[in-house]
Amino acid sequence: MSRPRILFIDAYDSFSNNIVSLLTTVLNADVDVLPIDPPHLNPKRAGFQDALREQVRPYHAVVCGPGPGAPDVDKDVGIMKHIWGLEGQDPPPVLGICLGFQSLAVSCGAVVKRLQTGLHGMIREIDHLTAEHDRNIFAGVSTFKATLYHSLHADVGQESVPAIEWQNAKWVSPPLFPDIVPLAWAYEDRGGAVERILMGIRHRTKPFWGLQYHPESICTESAGHRVIMNWFREAMAWNHATGRKTESVSPEVKVTEELESPILADAGPTTCSSSWLQGDGALASFGLDAKYLSKTIDIPLHIEVPDVVEILQDGGNEFIVLDSASAKLKRTGLDVRGRYSIIALDVDEALKLEYRTGRGYVTVRGPSASPAAQGSVKQVKLNQGQTIWQFLTDFWTERQIRSHGTPDPFIGGFMGYTTYELGLEGINVKLHEERHHDRADLCFAWVTRSIVIDHIEGSLRIQTLSSREPEGRQWLETTANKLARSPIWSNAIPANFGKAHQSSQLTPPHTPRARHTVPEIRAPDASEYESKVRLCQDFIAAGDSYELCLTDQTLITQPRSRSEGTLQSQGKHTSPSSWQLYRSLRTRQPAPFGSYIRLGGATLVSSSPERFLTFDSAGLCSMRPMKGTVRKSPLISTLEAAEKALHIPKEEAENLMIVDLVRHDLHSVCGPGNVDVPHLLKVEEYASVFTMISVVEGRLPPRLTGLDVLAASLPPGSMTGAPKKRSCEILQGLEGPRGRERSLYSGVVGYMDAAGRGDWSVTIRSLFRWDDETTSSINPSTLDATTGAGEIETWRIGAGGAVTALSTPEGETDEMFTKLKGPVGVFEEA
Ligand SMILES: C=C(O[C@@H]1C=C(C(=O)O)C=C[C@H]1O)C(=O)O
Ligand SMILES: NC(=O)CC[C@H](N)C(=O)O
């Protein structure tokens, strides 16, 4: 028999692809996905019912999925609501899950109410009917626990049943709702009183079933998969008994995900991407036909990443340093996260690709191209329907290097950043306001000269992608000599030259008093932040989100340092340059994903502990969401104590939600059955906090690369909450003042090399500024006499955390300030 076909109706949930994977693997079925609001099925148009019937006819069964919102709100359920009303001889067999379940219950007359407290990421035992009769999909299923993600539940009068009657009453259709046959329940202890929550139903006469819990969650026990098998067996039995005919899907009806084409706003550029990439202009041919050359030397123990940068800098303007600053602390070799540091060299000479959301073109900046240097900047139009990621893939494919013979993770290739707003474009979340700047949301340099430091081996590899071998080799020698001959290398100058001293005692952010307002720190107002946490919880209670990663920004203004643009340290009384801030942050807050980046008008100084995504050239990808953080304190100073503090329902639920979300993101590119969770809820130690991480792995099909994973998974789920799209929309409204963007914060930083390997971190615990936010000083009192530069620069630091139904406003505010402390401290130190 050919494989059965199932239509999955997606209510924009962040777990949908996990359900598709479950159905595909457990039922050996082909699953097509249709959104709740497909343009060709508008309930307001004449003939809608017929069109919907035609849509579902080819399928053996339909699944109505989970999602944000409420079942009685039309826009939240879209066509789902009309599935239950499909009259005629042969309604299709349908399974509703969570929102889909609630929609079925509402169609049978039930009222949907708010739970006393939402149950998101909570794992509960299911009390189900095991008897073998009457289309009971729980028949023969052993006891199991399942994950819940809901704020609402179906009220069928269960609270009015006296406790002594419950055992007999619970499997009987409630008198007021004769079409609902209860099949499963869960019970929530609410301080002595028990809340009865309907977990599974079937329709009395129609082939409709529903589950309130999430069968696809990583924490729903596999005994629960039997329910899905039973359901499908009942569905097929229904089709057979009623003679319901399914027809094979003709190519016209087959549903595929609709790709939105980018908005082609500016008519400006005329060169389109395909002709540019194949052209032979100086920019288009940059980096083609290159060969990998390298030279390895030992690195003295006292030399640190910034020392290497200082020795080799040649008065450049742009820098990319990915610094495993925590590696030295862990030279045991156990902590593989921080093994390598990568330094791009001669970034000014590299080709840069920049993209801004909503624009239909890519800006290509040639070597040493200042925006003013005409001729070396080109705007290349994206083809109709082509995304920035497809453009980057085409560019990369032309420069791919298959054999290089180095075990190191990077040989040269793309390095750069993306903003949070780039991610929003990818999930079709519109920005509230017009943007009053011209900054790029993605800036990737094609790096051909670089250094990889292996902190475990104590080695340094100088490498180039060069089309002229003798010249390339010459450069390797010159660079090696430059390092070896430097006085710092031979320890003639102490290696802590120019470094800020380590401060272990962190002080809370504050606004310095008026006399000498340098720098001026404007941290979020605690009570305002607390009210935003409460607003988040209102959205959660209403069913609009399961978890919201609320954040806020701290602004620091200071006179622009006179030595900005060089890597010099300077006198005591001037404001610190970005380089000094970086030196200071990496000492105060050493992290596995530190970075110093000056690229495309942005400066980023980061001490991120969070890996977003790593992948190899064979297509194995791994994501490492972090969620659940406690501050180090005398009470919580050991891993053991932190485990106690973090292995509690609230923290575990936060992490689990993001794990399921990341599985969904990875499933979308890796496909059903190709995603696993090798580590769940593991507590790790960082400089000033303990955090819980999980690892989610996927295997990419051969034709896809890590760029496809980035395209499918931004913005990082740990920075949004779930479901991603609705949560981001809510956060946009809350995180004002209006028009404020998260920008680099919540974006990602990393690389994808010419061999196809990549490593990306989430931009958190960091500070950034944009060149265009430097203003002339209007108030002379804010000027430090020794800078005299007359310019004020603005640094931004984002911080926040996940809000759930179980959060407390004070607890979340404290967590936000804890995360802020590290990065803000570099200014206080100055
Ligand atoms: C939002 C931040 O961190 C995120 C939120 C975390 C949490 O809620 O525990 C942990 C790591 C990050 O994914 C931040 O650092 O500002
Ligand atoms: N996961 C879901 O489908 C949730 C359904 C609904 N939004 C609720 O919160 O109850």
From TrEMBL:
<dbReference type="GO" id="GO:0000162">
    <property type="term" value="P:L-tryptophan biosynthetic process"/>
</dbReference>
<dbReference type="InterPro" id="IPR005801">
    <property type="entry name" value="ADC_synthase"/>
</dbReference>
<feature type="domain" description="Chorismate-utilising enzyme C-terminal">
    <location>
        <begin position="527"/>
        <end position="819"/>
    </location>
</feature>
<dbReference type="GO" id="GO:0046654">
    <property type="term" value="P:tetrahydrofolate biosynthetic process"/>
</dbReference>
<feature type="domain" description="Glutamine amidotransferase">
    <location>
        <begin position="8"/>
        <end position="232"/>
    </location>
</feature>
<keyword id="KW-0808">Transferase</keyword>
<dbReference type="Pfam" id="PF00117">
    <property type="entry name" value="GATase"/>
</dbReference>
<dbReference type="InterPro" id="IPR029062">
    <property type="entry name" value="Class_I_gatase-like"/>
</dbReference>
<dbReference type="GO" id="GO:0046656">
    <property type="term" value="P:folic acid biosynthetic process"/>
</dbReference>
<dbReference type="GO" id="GO:0005737">
    <property type="term" value="C:cytoplasm"/>
</dbReference>
<keyword id="KW-0289">Folate biosynthesis</keyword>
<dbReference type="InterPro" id="IPR006805">
    <property type="entry name" value="Anth_synth_I_N"/>
</dbReference>
<protein>
    <recommendedName>
        <fullName>aminodeoxychorismate synthase</fullName>
        <ecNumber>2.6.1.85</ecNumber>
    </recommendedName>
</protein>
<comment type="similarity">
    <text>In the C-terminal section; belongs to the anthranilate synthase component I family.</text>
</comment>
<dbReference type="InterPro" id="IPR017926">
    <property type="entry name" value="GATASE"/>
</dbReference>
<dbReference type="GO" id="GO:0046820">
    <property type="term" value="F:4-amino-4-deoxychorismate synthase activity"/>
</dbReference>
<comment type="pathway">
    <text>Cofactor biosynthesis; tetrahydrofolate biosynthesis; 4-aminobenzoate from chorismate: step 1/2.</text>
</comment>
<dbReference type="InterPro" id="IPR019999">
    <property type="entry name" value="Anth_synth_I-like"/>
</dbReference>
<dbReference type="InterPro" id="IPR015890">
    <property type="entry name" value="Chorismate_C"/>
</dbReference>
<dbReference type="GO" id="GO:0008153">
    <property type="term" value="P:4-aminobenzoate biosynthetic process"/>
</dbReference>
<keyword id="KW-0315">Glutamine amidotransferase</keyword>
<dbReference type="InterPro" id="IPR010117">
    <property type="entry name" value="PabB_fungal"/>
</dbReference>
<dbReference type="Pfam" id="PF04715">
    <property type="entry name" value="Anth_synt_I_N"/>
</dbReference>
<dbReference type="Pfam" id="PF00425">
    <property type="entry name" value="Chorismate_bind"/>
</dbReference>
<feature type="domain" description="Anthranilate synthase component I N-terminal">
    <location>
        <begin position="311"/>
        <end position="460"/>
    </location>
</feature>
<dbReference type="InterPro" id="IPR006221">
    <property type="entry name" value="TrpG/PapA_dom"/>
</dbReference>
